[in-house]
Amino acid sequence: MKTSDFDYELPEELIAQTPVEPRDHSRLMVVHRATGEREDKHFYDIIDYLNPNDALVINETKVIPARLLGEKEDTGVPVEVLLLRRKNQTDWEALVRPGRRLKPGTTCVFGGGLLKCEILESVPEIGGRIVRFHYEGVFEELLDRLGEMPLPPYIKEKLDDPERYQTVYSKTPGSAAGQRQRRRADGGSALHAGAARTHPRQGCDHRAGDTARRAGDVPPGSGGRC
């Protein structure tokens, strides 16, 4: 089974470019498993489908401004670094552009030198890199100042208010893409979106392990209830 088996046509005019107001008026599709019947509802109708002892899973991950636009330190060539997963205080797994020019040993600068990153090694399975940041101060504050919200390729319009990229449940920083779903467990777990949301890969075979990884946290006891 490949991810391409689930491809379908979605007219561009049906892709929402901005979130609906008020938020609970977003669409909700209800699928009745017993009959296969589908209903078009709104999110505020969800209470009609919850029963005692149901486990409602809500994703509390918070999107970070993970896209950094800068330049190569030696040549000034424009570069893009998309942060995917933090490995420690200074090192991240990331996607980079232009990939052919950003080889291990290359240094990129952002914000006129406020933030620098060194390419440490390649990560062939995702076509990415391990990068190490050099900076003074607090990394998260620099990222808020210099980074951009990473949008999926089908979203063309940017929002003036960065908080509108977040769900109302968001509290755990870490996702590299805005969350469409609201999946999280009672007690607070977080599923962080990564490369597949901002840089979709075509034809991946999930049995071969070449689909994008996601990091997450599920509190003790929550997993068993689901």
Explain what this protein looks like in three dimensions:
The chain has 226 residues and is mainly β. The protein has helices spanning 139-146, 195-198, 222-225; strands at 27-31, 38-42, 61-63, 67-72, 78-86, 91-97, 107-110, 115-123, 128-135, 172-175, 190-192, 215-217. The chain has a six-stranded antiparallel beta barrel with strand order 4-5-6-9-8-7. Strands 1-2 form a two-stranded antiparallel ribbon. Strand 4 and strand 5 form a beta hairpin.
Helices and strands in order, then pairings?
Blueprint: E1 27-31, E2 38-42, E3 61-63, E4 67-72, E5 78-86, E6 91-97, E7 107-110, E8 115-123, E9 128-135, H1 139-146, E10 172-175, E11 190-192, H2 195-198, E12 215-217, H3 222-225
The shape is elongated
What Rg, in angstroms, do the CA atoms define?
20 Å
The count of strands amounts to: 12
| Helix content range | under 10%
Strand order of the largest sheet: 4-5-6-9-8-7
Distance between the termini: 25 Å
Spans of at least 5 consecutive residues with low confidence? 177-192
Beta fraction of the residues? 25-35%
- Give the biggest beta sheet: 6 strands, antiparallel, barrel
- Put simply, the count of helices is 3
Find the structural class using helix and strand composition: mainly beta
Q: On the 0-100 scale, what is the average pLDDT?
A: 82
Q: Helix-strand pattern, N to C?
A: EEEEEEEEEHEEHEH
